[in-house]
Amino acid sequence: MLTKRIIPCLDVRSGRVTKGVKFQNNIDLGDPVEMAVAYSEGGADELVFYDITASAERRPIDIGMVEAVARTIRIPFAVGGGITSVADMERVILAGAEKVSVNSLAVRKPEIISDGAKEFGAQCIVLGMDPVRSDNPRCPSGYEITTRGFREYTGMDAVDWARRAAELGAGEIVVNSVDADGTRAGFELTVTRLVAEAVSVPVVASGGAGKPSHLADAFDIAHADAAIVAGMIHTGDWTIAQIKEELAAAGVPVRRFW
Amino acid sequence: MKEQARSKTVIVDYRAGNLTSVKLAFAALGEDAVVTSDANAVRRAGRVVFPGVGAAASAMANLRTLGLVDAVREAASDGRPFLGICLGMQILFEHSEEDGGVDLLGILPGRVRRFPDVPGCKVPEMGWNQVNGLDMAGVPDGSEFYFVHSYYAEKGPYTTGVTEYAGVAFTSAVRRGNMMATQFHPEKSGRVGLELLKGFLAC
Questions:
Q1: What CATH number does residue B23 fall under?
Q2: CB contact under 8 A, A45 and B128
Q3: Catalytic residue among A130, A181, A217, A225
Q4: Which of B122, B129, B147 is the closest to A200 by Cβ?
Q5: Of the candidates B186, B158, B121, B184, the residue with the CA atom closest to the CA atom of residue A1
Q6: Fewer CB within 10 A of the end CB, N or C, for chain B?
Q7: Where along chain A do its domains lie?
Q8: Which of A155, A45, A183 is nearest to B128 (CA)?
Q9: A190: closest CA of chain B, how far (Å)
């Protein structure tokens, strides 16, 4: 049986992993490569690195870090933030990342998804989206896409955008709820489920994980294929092994041998 | 000198996906594998790794254009250690449903089919799934490996690993003598993946 993936998210700022709530109050958590090794050996199924200050600072992704991670761990990882072109995607993929994630860029230039998928295969192209609850009449799903780290509202409906991105060739969609991000009070199940039911590609729940039952809800209720965890493991409150143990007890298929 | 050249591990590059991970996984085992598109290098190699992601038709076209068909066929049949990965496994079979039907290398009997549409089962299958029946040192039976694929090979006489998805029990590993191939990505499958690659290097 295909297992549900648990994906630690590492937000990297100036070469260090940081954690903040709603992109504010960032605190230093450690070295990206050391943390990648620890999570990989601890049972993570995949990792995602967001070079979170790259876009704002208008500088390219730290390829040296991507290479160092690729040399060191043997599980898939995705890299996002700071991608501005297919050439950037190529640098990240040739450095050894399995996937590249685009978010604000794809809203501005949707063809980056199709161009990337044509060049590297859909399985390499992840669309990250940051939906927020909204009563904007242009967003019938009730969720509107924001960009640039929740700073801008786009007027785009989250479910429409997910469908369009999948048609363009996104191989996976990460639904990162603005409302739930950093709260550790559970994923935003409604928008995750709406997206998971609208597209035929895997959907990753993101934002709000605080305890193992939140992940079980993302899989059982929202039909996510994978879930991102950050604060709950970065603080040491939970290990990935403990999360998996609780999920297995709740009947969720998880990877057991690592 | 010739002996030394013969012991080399080569990774066949036929423009079917990124080979960085495969090369890095062998590097982690202390093996400096050489990436090549040169048929003569494949013929001289002691061990041949045949990876691949993407579409079967363009992969077959690339093999022909690069003049690699015969060299790969020999490597998979003449007793040298050979490891096909993902599309590199599928291409060893006779025929694929992909792209309206593609004839493959036909080194192994059997066909490659698309996963059926089953509610709740996304295609491609992406993630870690159990492989049953794989007899490899250091790899517990039922270990999970990392898969990304929309097509699968039917079970056949050389199937050694079986995996289930979308209601189908498919071939996730094959072996005939020193020729082995996997639908999953051992280079991305953590410790058990490295154990499998170690077993290949020990052939």
A1: 3.40.50.880
A2: yes
A3: A130
A4: B122
A5: B121
A6: N
A7: 5-249
A8: A45
A9: 17
Contact B196, B34 (CB under 8 A): no
Range of the domain at B94: 2-201
Q: Residue B5: its pLDDT value, please?
A: 47
- Dist. CA B96–CA B101, nearest whole Å: 6
Q: How many domains does chain B have?
A: 1
Distance between CA atoms of A156 and A136, rounded to whole angstroms?
9
- Whether B121 is catalytic is no
Report the pLDDT value the prediction gives residue A14, as an integer from 0 to 100: 82
Contact B92, B84 (CB under 8 A): yes
| Residue for token pair 């982690």 | B28
Q: Which CATH class is domain A5-249?
A: alpha beta
Are A96 and B192 a contacting pair at CB < 8 A? Answer: no
CB contact (8 A) between residue B122 and residue A96: no
Contact B146 A2 (CB under 8 A): no
Q: Tell me the C-alpha distance between A180 and A119, whole Å.
A: 34
- Residue B185 bears catalytic tag: yes
Could you list the pLDDT tens digit for every one of the 258 residues in chain A? 999 999 999 999 888 998 765 556 678 999 999 999 999 999 999 999 998 766 666 677 889 999 999 999 999 999 998 899 999 999 999 999 999 999 999 999 999 999 999 999 899 999 999 999 999 999 999 999 999 888 899 999 999 999 999 999 999 999 999 999 989 999 999 999 999 999 999 999 999 999 999 999 999 999 999 999 999 999 999 999 999 999 999 999 999 988
Which candidate in B13, B26, B126, B143 is best for mutational testing of the A interface (most A CBs within 10 A)?
Answer: B126
Residue of B nearest to A71 (CA): B24
What is the ipTM for the molecules in this complex? 0.94
